[in-house]
Amino acid sequence: MLTAIKGIYKDGTIILNEKPPIEKPMEVIVTFTQEIETSPKKQRKAGFAKGTFTYISPDFNEPLDELKDYM
């Protein structure tokens, strides 16, 4: 029989939200539902890519010949 019960994992301990309907020792499988973040993400600063693009073709926004059939 498979039974799913929500709980919280903290400091090596799993705390269940309710008591399972089981009376004897049983093997369990624990699935973590949220991705574990290993390191804090670095926050980007506004303008960090300034100067990266030095040239943009004058026809950059023009339709591509390869896509004329779809327009």
Overview of this structure, please?
There is one protein chain. With 71 residues, the protein is largely without helices or strands. The protein is built from no helices and two strands. The protein has a two-stranded antiparallel ribbon. Strand 1 and strand 2 (13-16) form a beta hairpin.
Which strand order do you get reading across the main beta sheet?
1-2
Shape: elongated
Order of helices and strands: EE
Number of strands: 2
- Our measurement of the CA-to-CA distance between the termini, rounded to an integer number of angstroms, reads 56 Å
| Biggest sheet record | 2 strands, antiparallel
- Spatial extent as radius of gyration: 27 Å
Helix proportion: under 10%
- What is the average per-residue confidence, as pLDDT, rounded to a whole number? 85
**Which class of secondary structure composition applies to the elements?**
little secondary structure
Beta-strand percent range: 5-15%
Number of helices: 0
Q: Which stretches are low in confidence, meaning pLDDT under 50 for 5 or more residues running?
A: none
